Amino acid sequence: GRSDNRKEACAWHPEYGAWMIEGTPRMPFGGFVRDLRRVELSMRLRRRRILAALNRDEIVPTITAFPMMGTHDFTDPPTEPLGPVAQSDTCSDAVINGHPRFATLTGNIRKRRGSKVNIKVPLFIDSRTDEQSRTNATEGGDEMLRMSGFDNWTCARRHTIEMDCMAFGMGMCCLQVTFQARDIHESRHLYDQLAVLTPIMLALSASTPILKGRLADTDVRWATIAASVDDRTPQERGLEVCAPSHKGQMGWMAGGGARALAKSRYESISSYMCNCKQGSDPTSSLDKYNDIPCPIDETSYETLIASGIDKKLARHIAHLFVRDPLVIYSERIHIPDSDSTDHFENIQSTNWQTVRWKPPPPGSDIGWRVEFRSMEVQLTDFENAAFTVMTVLISRVLLYFRLNLYMPLSKVDKNMQEAHKRDAAASGKFWFRKHMAITEELEDGKTHDECELMSIYEILTGKGTHFPGLLPLVFAYLDNIGCDTLTRDSVRRYAMLLEKRAKGDLLTASAWIRKFVRSHPQYRNDSVVTHEIAYDLMTACSDIGEGRRKAPDLLGNVVIEPLTKDGAYEVSLESTPLDEKQRSLLIEKYRMRALDNKEKGTSISDGWTSPVEEQVMEAAGRAPPECRVCVTSHACRCASAESERVKRSLSASLDDESEEFSQAAREA
Fold this sequence. Notes:
Blueprint lengths: L9 E5 L6 E5 L9 H19 L46 H14 L5 E4 L6 H7 L8 E3 L7 E3 L3 E4 L3 H4 L6 E4 L3 H21 L5 E2 L2 E2 L6 H7 L37 E2 L30 H9 L4 H10 L21 H7 L3 E2 L1 E4 L10 E4 L8 H20 L8 H12 L3 H4 L2 E4 L17 E4 L1 H6 L8 H12 L3 H19 L5 H10 L12 H15 L6 H4 L24 H20 L14 H6 L21 H13 L4 H10 L1
Parallel strand pairs: 10-11
Antiparallel strand pairs: 1-2, 3-6, 4-5, 7-13, 8-9, 12-13, 14-15
């Protein structure tokens, strides 16, 4: 990414899908209140720079999942499935980014598992869904299947969206935020506390109601991705059978390929890791909260303990090593661990959990970090900034007020399942700790560890007299540290978005997309999203993101300022003289336009509403801005027949002398 904007710069990274790109700030934001206002500006700059790179027939909506992935003829140009890498029945290998890492990941997950991945998501049942299912009935349509990521949710096969390759999950986009901690102790504390919030923010940011061209009965992506990279063998998944390709071939695998693993390698966390006051703090003793299976690699654990690592951190690291590495570059195999953490990062980076603890690389000034990974990407930069900024502020509140969000991880996992349900943001009930800040003694028989079911609205705004809510604490924090008025106004708008979504006054992106599809004139109430519906949906999503379409049921009274590629990069104030011909063309052009404005009785400044015509720009050696089908914020160069006549006149006279150019302009 170019860094010619002195205040902001962008970095771009390849992602799994050939159509995807990851954008980040080139440098981390600072730790000042004013930096909160930079987030949205940075996101708008990134979107503007992507727009500057697009062709006229291309758009770049910020959506979680392409709705037609895996349907008939969903790529351009058309591609064929059953490629050698994914071996998918519906997706071509061409959708995978050409970087060798991604194809290697795909093939190795399938090979280690012993079969293709098996993703199962419940279908949204509309009034004519069964009619459509009978028309397209397949063998075994009544067979009951357990849905991916759910303990007790089963559906008939005909009511299930089935997907068979990594692209269905890793081809999804999301919103991730990385926090810099003061030291290792603060990073471990943040890791634990933020893990509790991941299901809440997942539900609030829900934006995945369509999979494989059909409406799903879920709102978020997480279970789909978890199943898409599930490389566990049948034995590791709790089955007694052995995959035919694995017979006699499992000795090389971690745990011999037979250790029971309750979760995919893309899942919620399986253990807290903070060593609060070396375990002497009774309010945060982790043993009672780590109440779910957390298999570990015993050899790794013993090595860590022998090296002086405390048990909680050793358990966290040893749990990562129950997985096998999935991809490594040959030239990076034989490197000393004393000089590089590549071998650790190779395991760490393919354990995709809701939060990730990130030790600093050796020999760098990067500190201890925590990555918050559960949120879904939103349609607009305003929404993405709102979720980013509010997550940052909640992390500061956790530290500033010394809050305690610990609760059993079994309840966190239940919250993850709850977050998947339709409209969970407004109607779901989530386990949460009743007392975040211990300020007084409780009645006999009650403890500070009590949890109760709350709506997200209650978690954000408070419940009764015992639970203050997260948003009031954010406001208290900002007021107490002396937040400026401009930042307060921005945060208020961001907080309002989350509050109104939790209350049900505003729709999540999932609810908005579902409503768009169901109200489309071509929708047949059969759960099917056609190519025509998807085209209109993607256009609408792009228009909302770029400020060309209002969405009051999604954004309330927030107006997205129209965004074009103008200003994507800084333009220097040139002082190098033009040659004589270029000078004559430009001066005459603008003299004639000023004269025309005067004759019409208008201001010459009012006449300066659009860039100069394409031919004059090219004569000056500069590329002209492209019209985006007459939707730019300035007057479009192709908006009328008159402008076309002007362009033809200019084109015909470009090589003529100045007087001939003037006459053509007058005639136009």
